[in-house]
Request: fold
Amino acid sequence: MARLRCLLPCVLLVALSASAKYIPDPIVRYKIDARLDPAAKTVTGHEIIVWRNHTSEVIPDLQFHLYLNAFKNGYTTFMRESHGRHRDSSFRGLPGEWGYEQISSLKVDGQDLTASMRFIQPDDSNAFDQTVLEVPLPKPILAGASVTIEIAWTSKLPRVFARTGFQDNFFLVAQWFPKPGVYEAKGERHRAEGGWNCHQFHSSTEFFSDYGTWDVTLTVPSDFEIAATGRLRHKHTQPDGATAYNFYQEDVHEFAWTTQPRSQVLKIERTFKADEQVSPAEIDEWSRKTGTPTEGVKLQDVAVTLFIQREHRGQTDRHFRAVFESIKWFGLMYGKYPYDVLTVVDPPYGGAGAGGMEYPTFITAGTSYWPAAHKLSPEQVIVHEFGHQFWYGLVGNNEFEEAWLDEGFNSYSTGKVLERAYGPNYQYEPVCGVPIPAQPWLDLPVPRYPWKGIGNLPIGQYWEWVPLEEKYGRAKLYAEDAQDDAMERYAWLDLDLASYRVQAYAKPELTLRTLESLLGDAWPKVIRTYQQRWRFKHPDAIDFMDTVREVSGQDMKWFFDQTVYGTGMLNYSVSFTSGWTKPGRGYFDAGGKPQLATNNDWNPDEAHFYTRPVPQPPGTPAGQIESEVLVRRLGEMQFPVTVLVKFENGSELREHWDGQCRWTKFKYAGKPKIVSAQVDPDFQWKLEVHRTDDSYQAQPVRLAADKWYLRWVVWIENVLMAFSFFS
Amino acid sequence: MTVSQAISAGVSAAWRNKAVVSLFFACNLLLAAAVAAPMYSAIANHLGNSMTASELARGFSASWLTEFQLAYSGFLKGFSTAIVYGGILFLVLNAVLSAGAFGVFSQPAPEDGGPAPGSLPWSMHAFGRGLGRFWGRFLRLTAIASVFYYALFWFWAGRAAQFNRWLFRDSVREAPHFYLEWLRWGLLFLCCFVVNAIVDYARAALVAHPERSTLAALGDGAGFVAGRLGRVMAIYFALGVLAAAAVLAYAAFARFFPQSSVVTVFIWFVVAEILLWVRWLLRLGSWGAAVAYHRACAGEAAVPGGDPVKVTP
Reply:
C-alpha cells in the first residue's frame, strides 16, 4: 500500500504531463472530475492535485483558497466589505441563493487529514470568513518534493452577482474548487521571507494562483451546452441523461466553465486566421517598433468559440470582430496569444454579474438585447477581458496585492486597441438611460446638451464625439480620488471602492500613457519586453520598473516614486505679463555725471508694464518691451516641464523647468510681446489634473463663453417647454 | 370636422395671431436666458485667459468639461435646482398665459367694425380679455391635472416598473422584459397625452361656456375626449410629429453646421430660435385645434341621432 502511494504521483505525473509547451514542469497539476446538479445548484467534485515545492525551503503546511465560502453568509469578509453589491449587481440573499464550498475528504499522499483542516484569516481575523483553509502536514514538504492531494468536495453555487453562480439554468462556474495558494520563496516578488501568499477573498480583490496543467471532466445534463477553459478532448454520453466532457489545458493558472440549456444558447465557432487578419505591412511595422524579428511578431491561428444567448445572435459578428481585433492588436503589441483556443461567453439577462470577467482562454463579456451600433458595447468589454489574457493570464501578477499591474496595464492596452480597431472618436454617452434601437438614423446626435444632467436625473446627457483617450482615461475619477491611496497598496486596504478603481484602473492607465510619452520610441520595446520576459511568471512592480530602466536606458525612479508610490497630483499653471517698460525716473549718468530724470507719465498706480511706449527722458534707457512668464507648480508631483512661449512676430521659444520649486519665472527684454504661453504643449503629462490653467493668452476668447451660454439657453428653453407640457 | 380640418384651423389661428405665439416664445427665451445667466460668468471665469477657450469656441473639450464639473460642483448643484424651479415657474406662467391664448382662439369675429381678427390690436385685446377672465380657473385646472400626472408617474414609472423587474427577476431572456418596458413607456406617454387632451378640451369648454365651474369644464373635457378619443389623439400625434420634425431638423442642423465663429454661432442661435418659435406655433396650434374641434362638435351634437346642424351661439 505504501508503495502504491509513492507510485501514485509518478503515475499522475506521467498522465498529466503531456509535455506542456511553455512550462515543462509546472508547480501544480490538476485532475478534476465534477458533476453539476442543476436543480440543487451544486457541483460535486473529486480532484487530484500534484503540488510541487519549487523552493529550497521546507514547507510545513498547505493552504487553499475556498473562494465560494465568501458567499456563505452575511458575515464573511467579502459580504461585509461589499454590502451585498458588486459592480451593478445586488445580492438578494434569498434562501437558495447563498453559496459555499464544503470539503468532505482531504488526503495528502494517501493520509486522511480531513480532521486537521482549519480555516484561517490572515488579512482581517474575521472568524466567520472561511475562504482560506490551512492543513498542517504531519511531514513537511521538502525542497523540490511533490505531494499528491486528493479532495472530495461539494460546491453550492450562489445566485450570480459577483462573477460566479447561477441564474435560472445558466451556470458560470469559476473559483469553484479548493485551490492551493501560492508559496513564494524568499526573494520571489522581492519577499523578505518565504511563505504562503494566500489572501482571503475581499470585495475589491481578484485572484492569484500558480500555473499548471488542467485535466477536467465535467458532467452536465445532455441537453445542456458547455464551454470551458482549454480544448474539449472528448465527451461521453451516459445512460442517466448526462454527458461527461473532458477539457484539457496547460500553462494556465485558472479553470472556469459555463453551461446552459441548448434551447437558450448557441455555440458558434470561427477561426482567427493570422495570415488573413494581419498584413505583412503590419508585421513589418511592429517589428520595427518593438525591435523584434519579423518571425517573432507573427501571430498564430486561434479557434474561437462564442457562447451566445439565442436572443443576442444578431450580435454575433460584433462579438467576433471585437475578439479578432483583440487577438490581432494585443498580439502585435505584446507578442502572440500563445494558446490555440479561446472561449467568449455572453451571459444572459439576469446573469450580468457573471459578465466582464477573465479566466485563461475563457472570457465573459455581456451585452443587452438591442444595443446601439455605435455604443461599442459589447466591444469594449470583450477587448478589455481579452486583454486580461495578457495582463493577469500570461503575466501573472498578484491581483490581491498589486491590482494595478493587471487592471492598469489592461486599461491602458484596451484604450490603445479600441483606438486602432474602432478609431479614436467612437465614443458616446448613453441617452437618458432609455434603450433605443440601433438604427442608422439614430446616429444623428440630439441637440448638444452641454451637461450630464440635473442632480442624478440623466436629462440631456451630452452626446458628443468624445476622444476615446479623454473618456477612457477616466480623468474625472482620477481627479476626484487619486490622493486617497497609492497605486502600490493592497487592494482591500484602499479607502473605498472609488479609490480602488482609481488606483487599479484610472491612475495606472494615465501613468502608463505618460510614461509612453516620456520614453517615446523606446516604449513599445519596453512594454513588449516586460510582457515577454514575465510570461508564465509572477512579477511585481519592481520587476516592471527594472525592465523599464534596462530597456530604455533611463533611470525613471523619480517618475515611479511619485506615481506608483506617491499620492500627489500633477498640476501646473502658467500666466504672463507683457508690455513696455515704465519711463525712467531718478538719476542717470550722462557725461560722467548723474543727471536727474523726471517724467510726468509715470504713475505709481499703473501696472508693472505699460501697454504703450512712452517717451523716455534724455539719458535714460530707451523704452522696450519686457515680459515675464510665471509658471507655478500647484501639485505635489515634481515633473520637468516644457513651456512654449509665442511672440507677436510669430517666433516662439521652448523653455524647460525641472519643476522642483513651487514656481519659476522666465523674463524677456527687448523681444516682441508675448501672445501665448503653454505648459506641456505636447500633452506629455496625461496625469495633469487641470489642463485649463496650463495655457494663457494675451486676449481672452469670449466666444467660448458666449457660445456655451447660448447652448445652455437653448437647452433650458427645451426643458422649460417640456415642463409647460404639464400645464 | 375632420382631423385635418381641426389641425388646419388651429395652426391657422395660431399663425394669424403670431403676436401671441411670440409672447409665449419670448417668455420662454427670457426665462431661459435668466436662468442660464450665472453659467456665462462661471464658464468665463473658469476659462479666464486660457487657450482652452479657443478649443471650446471651435468645438468641444471633454477634459475641460470634467475640470469644470469638478471645480464648480457646488455651483452646478444649485444651478440644477434653479432649472427645476424655473421649470415650475414656467409651468405656472404657461397655465396663466394659456388663458389668454384660449381667449384669442375662442373670440368670434367683431361685427362692429373693430380691428380685424388676427391683427395685433385685436389679438392683444382678445388675449388680455381671456387672460383676465380665465386665468384663475385655468390655474385650478393645472393643479388638478398635476394630481393626475403624479398618479400616472407613480403608477407607470414606479409600480409598473417594479412589477416588470419582479416579473423577470429570475429570467434569462431579456426580450419579453425589453418589449414590456417599451409598452410601459408607451402607455405612460399615452396616458400623459390623454390627460393633456382632457385639460385642453376642458379649457376649450370653459371659454365656450364661461359660466361653468372648473370641475364642470373638466367633466366636459373628459367626456369629450372619451367620446372622440381616436380623433383627439390623432390631432395630438399629428402635431406631435410635426414638432418632432422640428426637433430633428434642429438636431441635423446643429450636428453639421459649424459653430466656430461669431457669425456661425449667431446663425446657429437664430436658426435654433426660429425652430423653437415654430414649435410654439404648433403648441398653440394644438390649442386652437382643440377650440375649433370642440366648437364644431358641440354644434354637430345639437340634434340627437340626427344630422349635425350648426347652432348659432
Observations:
- The radius of gyration of chain A is 31 Å.
